[in-house]
Amino acid sequence: MNRLLDRFDHFLIDLDGVVYLGDQPTLCAAETFTALNDAGKRRLFITNDPRHTAQGYATKLARLGIPADPAEFLTSGRAAALYLQREGKTGRPIFVVGSDGLRSEIEAVGGHVLKGNEGVTAEIVVVGGHEHFSYQELKIATLAIQRGAAFIATNRDANFPMPDGLWPGTGPIVAAIEVATGITPVVVGKPEKLIFEIALDLFPPAAAAPSSATGSTPTSSAGSGRGSPRSWSSPAAQRRRWPSGARSVPITLSKTSPA
Ligand SMILES: [Mg+2]
């Protein structure tokens, strides 16, 4: 652990199965991930689970004994929202197959989310697994994509670990829409590169990294010395930092509806 601490300033940390299993922290999770923060390391907890907001995960980790700021979480849902923002598409009508948490992440970046049957007129469909997935959602997403809406999947995970076994994840729901439409989505979450590009952009420039940390950084350091994720509010600046040639995933958003 100490050697790892010496070698790296930034840590990308998986949540499901690494920090917790369901509502149970993994062995030594609280000590380990709190120690990173105490040593002045930058943490970004990354999960493909798009059901909850960053705030929701911060609250959950606090409950498990790991204080963390909401800015230290990147869900595949938040990544999808930041991707839409980066592409300047948040003003386009969006239909969300997913939880209220996913909808609020998209609305948090200014996303224009359509409700109910209005969704068939969406120009972008964003899909995240959730417990209340319905035929109605499947139908609306299918009709919108048939009419030319871009198809964005938060991730393709077949399942996720829970104490009683593997529960179905976003992948089976994406597959249903894929089969119904014959269209392959742009996938944002792990293991695709997009979420990691977005993750790296959430870390501050190297000069601002806590390279001289001595272990005295307060555990609760929200906002201090952290690169501000609010910088995402400037898509132009993002483009400058990420020349389009660096993208590995084809951008198909303007397929039918130029911005
Ligand atoms: Mg995992």
Molecular structure report:
The chain is α/β, with parallel strands linked by helices. The protein folds into 2 domains: 2-76 and 192-244, HAD superfamily/HAD-like (Rossmann fold, 3-Layer(aba) Sandwich), CATH 3.40.50; 88-187, Rossmann fold (3-Layer(aba) Sandwich), CATH 3.40.50. The chain has helices at residues 2-7, 29-38, 54-63, 76-86, 100-108, 135-146, 170-181, 193-202, 235-241, and strands spanning 10-14, 20-21, 24-25, 42-47, 73-75, 93-97, 112-113, 124-127, 150-153, 159-162, 165-168, 186-187. Helix 4 packs parallel to helix 5 and helix 6 crosses helix 7. The chain is globular, with a radius of gyration of 19 Å. The model is unreliable at 207-259 (pLDDT under 50). Bound molecules: magnesium ion (MG). Magnesium ion (MG) is lined by residues 14, 16-18.
